[in-house]
């Protein structure tokens, strides 16, 4: 596990921001951190990044203790805050080189990394522009470049897409998947659930300073069938040592919450809705039919989708579309909120 927190608590004066939180996040994955305003997400990320001390509990990030090894944690972690404060008179290159030098990179390597990172976030043409000129979205992209300049093992992102345009958001999603496939552990807090859904392997829900988990895989519509599938590479699961509490329960020192695997929801439409319904009844007795006569299915991975499509076609169903539906994460979040009221 790349990130582990056990019974972590942090209060501000008498207000608890994070309360006896226990989570475990595996290496080489993208995990979403989701919860309402004030749930404690930023406070948790700051503690993981060794920028805020917990009052109690223990944390390990890439095997390091942020309390006793803050310097080492800063080198292992890339941190992107929701608003990136920079030195406005410095140019983008100078800012990145300054951070790279602070991470121990020599000046030549720092210059190379600065150039690479600016290219990665499409800011090369602003390399020599002072930061004060940057727009909000460009500033966010520079913040991402800053977080990555020292090739961290763990990347912590707090609302990274806010302020970014659609193209930059799509680039960010691709980048996060690439980093995870190269072994980087990514923990990303976001309120933009539709976009988060497209990039994460699993999700940790937070409320009132604790981690919690819904009782079913995230994105799985209620009553949807458990479809046969091969385990997807990188798919997260609840380990035997780590129990996921049911909806409404808080994570406590005794129960470590792991990311809930994200099951993509797919929507199938056919020329003949009756034929589609008949096939679903025979092959997928619990499938949910939408009011328009389409089917909404929990599909674990592309291979499962291909199997379903083949099965439908072989049964003579004239499928006109079969694609990820989205909205499952938001549905899970809202139902979790509903249950907690
Ligand atoms: N420096 C601080 N001083 C006092 N209270 C704080 C401080 N930082 C956070 N808090 C409080 O701690 C709680 C958790 O805040 P936090 O910013 O971690 O939540 P969040 O989940 O990140 O919220 P959001 O989604 O709105 O960003 C809130 O009640 C907040 O008011």
From TrEMBL:
* CDD domains, alphabetized: ABC_DR_subfamily_A (cd03230)
User: Residue ranges under compositional bias (Polar residues)?
Assistant: 241-256
Organism, by scientific name, is Actinomyces lilanjuaniae
Q: Which UniProt keywords apply?
A: ATP-binding, Nucleotide-binding, Transport
Say which family it is in: Belongs to the ABC transporter superfamily.
Q: Where is this region: Disordered?
A: 212-257
Domain named ABC transporter is located at 3-233
Q: Which InterPro entries does its entry note?
A: AAA+_ATPase (IPR003593), ABC_transporter-like_ATP-bd (IPR003439), ABC_transporter-like_CS (IPR017871), P-loop_NTPase (IPR027417)
Short name of one Pfam family for this protein? ABC_tran
Keyword Nucleotide-binding in annotation: yes
Q: What is this protein called?
A: ABC transporter ATP-binding protein
From the UniProt record, which GO molecular function terms apply? Answer: ATP binding
Alphabetical list of Gene3D superfamilies matching this protein: P-loop containing nucleotide triphosphate hydrolases (3.40.50.300)
Source superkingdom: Bacteria
């Amino acid at each position: 596990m790349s990130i582990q927190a056990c019974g972590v608590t942090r209060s501000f004066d008498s207000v608890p921001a994070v309360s006896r939180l226990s989570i475990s996040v595996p290496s080489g994955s993208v995990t979403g951190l989701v919860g309402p305003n004030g749930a404690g997400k930023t406070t948790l990320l700051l503690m993981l990044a060794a920028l805020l001390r917990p009052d109690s509990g223990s944390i390990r990030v890439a095997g390091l203790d942020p309390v006793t090894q803050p310097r080492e944690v800063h080198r292992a972690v890339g941190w992107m805050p929701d608003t990136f404060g920079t030195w406005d008179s410095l140019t983008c290159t100078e800012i990145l080189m300054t951070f790279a030098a602070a991470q121990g990179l020599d000046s030549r390597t720092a210059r190379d990394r600065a150039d690479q990172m600016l290219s990665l976030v499409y800011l090369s043409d602003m390399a020599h522009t002072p930061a004060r000129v940057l727009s909000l979205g460009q500033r966010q992209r520079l913040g991402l470049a800053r977080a990555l300049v020292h090739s961290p093992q763990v990347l912590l992102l707090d609302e990274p897409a806010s302020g970014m345009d659609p193209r930059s958001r799509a680039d960010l999603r691709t980048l996060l998947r690439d980093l995870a496939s190269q072994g980087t552990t990514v923990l990303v807090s976001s309120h933009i659930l539709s976009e988060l859904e497209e990039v994460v392997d699993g999700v940790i829900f937070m409320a009132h300073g604790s981690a919690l988990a819904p009782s079913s895989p995230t994105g799985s519509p209620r009553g949807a069938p458990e479809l046969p599938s091969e385990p997807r590479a990188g798919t997260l699961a609840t380990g035997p040592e780590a129990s996921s509490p049911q909806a409404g329960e808080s994570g406590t020192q005794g129960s470590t919450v792991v990311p809930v695997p994200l099951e993509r929801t797919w929507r199938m439409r056919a020329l003949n809705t009756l034929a589609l319904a008949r096939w679903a009844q025979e092959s997928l007795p619990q499938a949910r039919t939408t009011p328009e006569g389409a089917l909404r299915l929990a599909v674990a991975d592309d291979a499962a989708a291909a199997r379903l499509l083949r099965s439908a076609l072989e049964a003579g169903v004239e499928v006109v579309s079969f694609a990820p539906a989205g909205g499952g994460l938001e549905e899970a979040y809202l139902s979790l909120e509903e249950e907690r009221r």
